[in-house]
Amino acid sequence: MQTKPDLTADVGEILLSEDEIQAKVAELGARISTDYAGKSLTLVSVLKGSLPFMADLMRAITIPVRIDLMEVSSYGGTATESSGLVRILKDLSASIAGEDVLIVEDIIDTGLTLNYLIRYLRGKNPATLRICTLLDKPARRLVDIPVDYRGFTIPDQFVVGYGLDYGEIYRNLRFVGVLRREVYAGGAEG
Amino acid sequence: MTDPLREIAPPFAHASEAEMARILDFYGIAWEYEPHTFPILWNLEGDVVESFSPDFFLADLDLYLEMTTLRQKLVRKKNRKLRRLRELYPDVHIKLFYARDFRALMLKYGKLALADALTGTAGQAGLPVAPAATEPMEPGLATAVIVLDAVGDGSAPPTSPSRPTAARRRRRRRAAASVPATTIRPDRSENP
């Protein structure tokens, strides 16, 4: 029988408190409001991890914005069979041609997913396409991504909370914390 | 663009490399497996005695990727080769992907158990050794650079009697007196 995760107890260390996150979101919102003043801004969030950040960031922005949501499949191949290609599970609901688009991400680590998204969205001919991420984990980077708005650079640790999950759990934590190793060690496979 | 339908099969020397190829395919990153070999050590006669063939070349990103999921001693040796490569070929962009990086990647994709199965010697493929390329070395182009292991990391010399893996055997063949299809040579002016 599987034990239910204890959300807070499973976190070994709080990396970013709720107050720190909210202060940073406010700061990013102010910068974006200034930079995009007088422009037609569309925020594109990538489900599911970016949801809390998107919800807070859009309310910290003081200029008119449109929002849209996308979801792409995540890699889940096995050792013996190919898992195919990344798929768009939810596409944009409106055209972004000629729009100033800001991709809102929860975290950038390898950059593989974002690299794919950037290429995909560029094909839709936005006027500009820039990146805003709450968390940046450069130690894991495979693809160099120019980040225009960065909340925090974090160390090379597995983090959960504020949208970030492990096995679809922990997204609703109000802070970002480091998941205890024993939670995922021992052959856990989600 | 990489053909998404091609099978992930040999010539991968390690299962983690095959898994990385699947990940790159998944995200539409074009890759080539060991397309280039970089000589990094020559003897007094100008013969290449050690070379480095990064596992992947991601042409669109102008990036080489070397997977190092084996034990620490081999990681040290690879680190030394990487340092040498960067000295001789400063314009080459290469990223070393350690076992911990691979493990973190698998954790992210919910495949941590798979990482344990694929890393280390357990993941080595018992593949037949690829035939050595036969293009002869051009003596005039091989700058005679004698590289002593100045960093003293204790790694085994190229003639180590330890049992070579298929990949190591293949790379040694490439390094010894013959050069693979595409061998990169350093700019003479950059040699010490």
Give the key terms.
heterodimer; A: 190 residues; alpha/beta; six-stranded mixed beta sheet; three-stranded antiparallel beta sheet; 27% strand; globular; B: 192 residues; alpha+beta; four-stranded mixed beta sheet; 8 strands; disordered C terminus
Task: Outline the structure in words.
By secondary structure, chain A is α/β, with parallel strands linked by helices. Chain A has a domain at 18-74 and 87-154: 3-Layer(aba) Sandwich (Rossmann fold). Chain A has helices at residues 18-35, 51-60, 112-122, 181-184; strands spanning 11-16, 41-46, 65-72, 88-90, 100-108, 128-136, 149-153, 159-160, 176-179. In chain A, strands 4-3-2-5-6-7 form a six-stranded mixed β-sheet, with helices on both faces. Chain A has a three-stranded antiparallel β-sheet with strand order 1-9-8. In chain A, helix 1 crosses helix 2 (51-60). By secondary structure, chain B is α+β, with helices and mostly antiparallel strands. Chain B has helices at 15-26, 72-88, 99-108, 112-118, 166-175, and strands at residues 32-33, 38-42, 48-52, 56-58, 63-68, 94-98, 135-136, 178-179. Chain B has one domain. In chain B, helix 3 runs antiparallel to helix 4. The model of chain B is unreliable at 1-8, 126-165, 171-181 and 188-192 (pLDDT under 50). Chain B has a four-stranded mixed β-sheet. Chain B has a two-stranded antiparallel sheet with strand order 2-3. In chain B, strand 5, helix 2 and strand 6 (94-98) form a beta-alpha-beta unit. Chain B is globular. The interface between A and B is medium-sized, with 31 and 32 residues.
